[in-house]
């Protein structure tokens, strides 16, 4: 990530790459969601991120914080499922934490994301280990704070976190009604969270 | 002054349009004859599918806002999360909008009855929340 300016253009790129990744993986997300959810995660995320990419292209905000706030607002208003307010809160709270700066440091981004992830945990009343998106998001933020602190390390940690949801029993959302039958399936929300961090690493290249 | 001035507005948010509308009809019906507090349903997605729409919620809240606050009752999942997210982060809802922790159907009846009697927002929320205490066995 060194050398990449973390300015508004970078954040627009992150969201655009995220939109492409969600679009590419939509069928996979829906397939995962059909096992333990209501089989709409892929299409919901696809619709939400398509709206994000469109609004950022037509009205690109001037600061990193404003990019994430605008993206979060779009997700809350267009997704239609629980992932809308959850991802919307992640991006809006992170964006607010970044303030008005026209460019942010990697440390500021990490702390902004941490504030966003904490807000998601509070909104959902969830903790790591509940088989939710937090199981990818928290390891990713921790990796940003680690020795290398690179976006690649964060993407890797998010991916590992998503895979590690397979043996877990869901304790939140519709999947929790399945009890032990939720074991053995990868969590769709953790999977889409890993896509976002993969997109962050890709946007920095 | 618009109709219902000074009364708390009630918004009923469900995953399903028909559920939200039916609960609104039930609550208004049980509130008895005469004038009731403004009630609006915000169920499903704008295209009529199952889900939650922040736009329908915000529009419903504006419709029932008479300046005395708006109580939002929700059913489950994304309905809860969407309203919580709008209140925590957004500027889409009117000033004085509040998520009320209550069972959806019973809470809606209690909220509409109390709001129609002129109760303030806090009292409406308490009345709706007390519906949790009515055990069925």
Task: Identify the notable features of this structure and list them briefly.
heterodimer, A: mainly alpha, Serine Threonine Protein Phosphatase 5, Tetratricopeptide repeat, 9 helices, 0% strand, B: 137 residues, alpha/beta, Rossmann fold, four-stranded parallel beta sheet, 5 helices, 4 strands, 43% helix
Question: What's this, in brief?
Answer:
Chain B: It holds the Pfam family EIIA-man. With 205 residues, chain A is mostly helical.
Q: Figure out the total of helices of chain A.
A: 9
Order of helices and strands of chain A: HHHHHHHHH
Biggest interface, which chains?
A-B, 21 and 17 residues
- The SS-based structural class of chain A is mainly alpha
How many domains in all of chain A? 1
The CATH level-2 architecture of chain A is identified as: Alpha Horseshoe
Helix content range of chain B: 40-55%
Q: Tell me how many strands of chain A there are.
A: 0
Number of domains of chain B: 1
InterPro entries (chain B): DhaM, PTS_EIIA_man-typ, PTS_EIIA_man-typ_sf
Protein name (chain B): PTS fructose transporter subunit IIA
Organism (chain B): Streptomyces piniterrae
GO molecular function (chain B): phosphoenolpyruvate-glycerone phosphotransferase activity
Written description of the protein model:
The complex is a heterodimer of chains A (205) and B (137). Chain A is an all-alpha fold and 205 residues long. Chain A has one domain: Alpha Horseshoe (Serine Threonine Protein Phosphatase 5, Tetratricopeptide repeat). Chain A contains 9 helices and no strands. The mean pLDDT of chain A is 94. With 137 residues, chain B is an alpha/beta fold. Helix content of chain B is 43%, strand content 14%. Chain B has a single domain, classed as Rossmann fold. The radius of gyration of chain B is 13 Å and the shape is globular. Chain B contains 5 helices and 4 strands; from the N terminus they run βαβαβαβαα. The chains are: A mainly alpha (205), B alpha/beta (137). At the A-B interface, helix 4, helix 5 and helix 6 of A face helix 3 of B. Chain A: It comes from Streptomyces piniterrae. Chain A: InterPro entries: DhaK_L_YcgS (IPR012737), DhaL_dom (IPR004007), DhaL_dom_sf (IPR036117), Dihydroxyacetone_Kinase (IPR050861). Chain A: This is Dihydroxyacetone kinase subunit L. Chain A: GO terms for molecular function: glycerone kinase activity.
